[in-house]
Amino acid sequence: MVLKLEDLLDFFQSNLSEIHFGQLKNLKKQQDLIKVEEFLSWARRTKNLKITSYDIPSSILKNSKLHDIKIDSRGPDDKVYDKNEELRLKVARGNSILETNQNGKIDHKLVIYALRKFTGGLGDEDDLDRNSKDWKNYFIRDFSYVRQVFSLQKANGEAAHFSCSWIDGEFLLCSGSKNVHLVFKNKNDLMNFTEQRFSYAKIISETILNFLDRLDTDLKIKFLSFLCLFNLTVVFEILNPDTQHVEDLSYLTEPLLMFITFTSNVIDPKPNSLCSMAPDCAIQIANLFKLNTVKMEIVDHSSIEDHLCKIRKDHSYEGVVLYFLDSEFNVIGLLKKKTAWYIIVRAIREKLRYHTSPKNNASICELETRVKSRLKSIQNWIGFSDKECDEWLALLTQFCQWFDERFKKNFISRDDFSNKFPVLWSKFLDESSLTDKIEISINQNENSTIKNLNENIEKMSLN
């Protein structure tokens, strides 16, 4: 049974700071400024949007459908978002609408509305190179309104979302990846989703159910009631040891959900905030419900430059996302900043991806030439020295040779490469007695995001 709002507020008042409790109470004041059915209709007639709909099995919920809305583009969606402010403001990276039909009365409910698109600067996007000032277009208020900055470490996994609704006297759960979501009540319900496109959403859903099973009943009901009554999406990153990207996740024996933030399932074409609450408030609430959370730190205005330089020089993790808040605790912008280590190691992974393709007939020398060219581009973005570039090039060249030899002898399969690249990278370093802990310097050139950010920080300090 879903809890009464008064009982839930009593629980939070006893366990949250006064400031965080105040932020939470303000959530109940939010209302849709666009009706969900109008949003769905708009999405259907809008260029560059795609809606994927399916009938929910009647054993889960009778006479109902789920609509997933996403950007329709070839390749990365950045170019579509870059050119269209309306899409940036309205379309999140995860939008799901539940449609129900009770005796001919059709209702729509927004059940997933995750983080809106945000970006980084030079070198901080995985799939394309961008202008160092593009990130400002994704802020919903001018940078001069920033009063607080939080830095949350990026988890190197896949996007995962979760929400809960109280329908027909039961909790109805909804979860999934960036573009594919499903609704369910228990593990047996997941057996209904047999199409390949649901495979990752099912892994996420199973992981969520396992987490809920580990909570005591009282805390589980509080958590689910909280999501229902406050109409929230939980934004996670899921770390899966069976599908690793760049960071080595071999220490995990099963998928792990890492909490990032809460977002409100409220359609507002001119939102005041990109998140439901400030990061420190969200993480305090997540801790109450025993969720694993990403690392967070508060960054002083005067040390943002030093913080970003430190992140660039760090090792063995992807990077951070900076959350910029105004005086009312609204998150008015986000900015990615990735470590040079991640950028470089991911680059070699992508070059090898093509090299392992059945269509590829390039020699190892050609591969090494492409790797050198890519590394030079990264050097130009980040600004490290020729000596440091040469150290990385020597390491990457040795890895190419090590990998190519074993791949040709079938000691490494294409599946090993696709899903366990970090394991191969670690094995190479171990067998070769080498290290990828290469110190780098950062040259803040004219085009750098850091320099551009500094100009905005100076502007911020004058207000």
TrEMBL record:
This is Actin-binding IPP-like. It comes from the Eukaryota. PANTHER family: CHROMOSOME UNDETERMINED SCAFFOLD_18, WHOLE GENOME SHOTGUN SEQUENCE, RNA_LIG_T4_1 DOMAIN-CONTAINING PROTEIN.
